Amino acid sequence: MFEFITDEEERGQVGIGTLIVFIAMVLVAAIAAGVLINTAGFLQSKSQETGQQSSKQVSDRVQEVATVGNVSNNAVDFVNVTVTQGAGSGEIDLENTTVTWIGPSGTYQLIAHSDFDNTSDATGDVFTYDVVKDTDTSAPVLNDNDDRLQYIFDVSDFTGGQELAEGDEVTIKINTMAGATTSIRFTVPESLGQKEAVEL
């Protein structure tokens, strides 16, 4: 026996098929929209984080206030660099800064050591620091534009006894934990004479 399909049944089957396709399209679109929203949120958070890090690399740096050399036997044996926060900078911890000293005797990577009187227990070449001005006792953290801390470099300690002579040129690069770098360049005066200290 043959079954005859009427026009109404045929239209119903076509309508159900169309409905299934429509539902499938809606589900696919909903899943795609969810993926896009999640991806957009992830990209936004990553871009904000990257922007903040980039900003810190530019702004979270120290600013030189003064650089002075201590003169002994017509040579500079200590260099003291007084620093403050750079413009727009956040908190800077001097203990988490690293220093590259580029001088006539070579290049040295220096790390902070808090005990000025005893550097014998330190590993590697070191610089020390001292407080010049700190109203809220936050040292060694610079957290106010009025704070002044001092990097102290015992030149002969990390150069194997070689002090800075007249006319020597030095570059000091101070790198903060955020990745910002401050470069300080100076030349020892051509005549130290009977001076006890010189501005560099």
Walk me through this protein's architecture.
The protein has 200 residues and is an alpha+beta fold. 28% of the residues lie in helices and 36% in strands. It folds into two domains: 1-59; 62-199, Immunoglobulins (Immunoglobulin-like). It has helices spanning 7-59, 155-158; strands at 62-72, 75-85, 92-93, 98-103, 106-112, 126-133, 141-142, 148-154, 169-175, 181-187, 197-199. The strands form two sheets. A nine-stranded mixed β-sheet has the order 10-9-4-5-6-8-2-1-11. A hairpin with a 2-residue loop joins β4 and β5 (106-112). The longest helix has 53 residues, at 7-59.
Write the layout of secondary structure elements.
Elements: H1 7-59, E1 62-72, E2 75-85, E3 92-93, E4 98-103, E5 106-112, E6 126-133, E7 141-142, E8 148-154, H2 155-158, E9 169-175, E10 181-187, E11 197-199
Parallel strand pairs: 5-6
Antiparallel strand pairs: 1-2, 1-11, 2-8, 3-7, 4-5, 4-9, 6-8, 9-10
Under the CATH scheme, the architecture of the largest domain is Sandwich
Describe the main β-sheet briefly.
Answer: 9 strands, mixed
Gross geometry: elongated
Range of helix content: 25-40%
Topology-level CATH name of the largest domain = Immunoglobulin-like
The stretches of 5 or more residues where confidence is low (pLDDT under 50) are none
**Estimated radius of gyration:** 33 Å
Derived from helix and strand composition plus strand pairing, the structural class reads alpha+beta
Beginning-to-end CA distance, first to last residue: 111 Å
Please give the number of β-strands: 11
How many helical elements? 2
Average pLDDT for all residues: 83
Lateral strand order in the biggest sheet: 10-9-4-5-6-8-2-1-11
What's the CATH C level of the largest domain? Mainly Beta
| Fourth-level CATH superfamily of the largest domain | Immunoglobulins
**Overall number of structural domains:** 2
Sketch the topology as an H/E string, one letter per element: HEEEEEEEEHEEE
The proportion of strand residues reads 35-45%
Family: Belongs to the archaeal flagellin family.
Organism: Halobaculum litoreum
InterPro entries: Flagellin/pilin_N_arc (IPR013373), Flagellin_arc-type (IPR002774)
Transmembrane segments: 12-37
